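Re: beginner question about structure tokens

> Can someone show what the tokenized structure looks like for a real chain? I only ever see the sequence side.

Sure, here's an example I had lying around. Input first:
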Amino acid sequence: MAAALTKQASPRITLHDLRHLAATLSITAGTPLTVVSKTLRHSTLSTTANLYSHLTQQAAHDAVDAIDTALLPRCSITPSG
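And the corresponding structure tokens:
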């Protein structure tokens, strides 16, 4: 009975899931999309970009936030009083 519960409770993870996880971790770690695309052996870069566009968009937002954070202290305007 315990074996049946353990088997039922654990999610089924496929090789495709692991491939997607590896790509996701690589992109979020900053690996260039061209490298990820070649690693996955996609026929075109656009295939990779289309599949993982949500991650590259998040990376772009993170980059803008990093620039904003870096520049904000230098551009602070303090009220004169």
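Each token stands for a local structural state, so reading them left to right follows the chain. Residues 55 and 76 are 31 Å apart (CA to CA).
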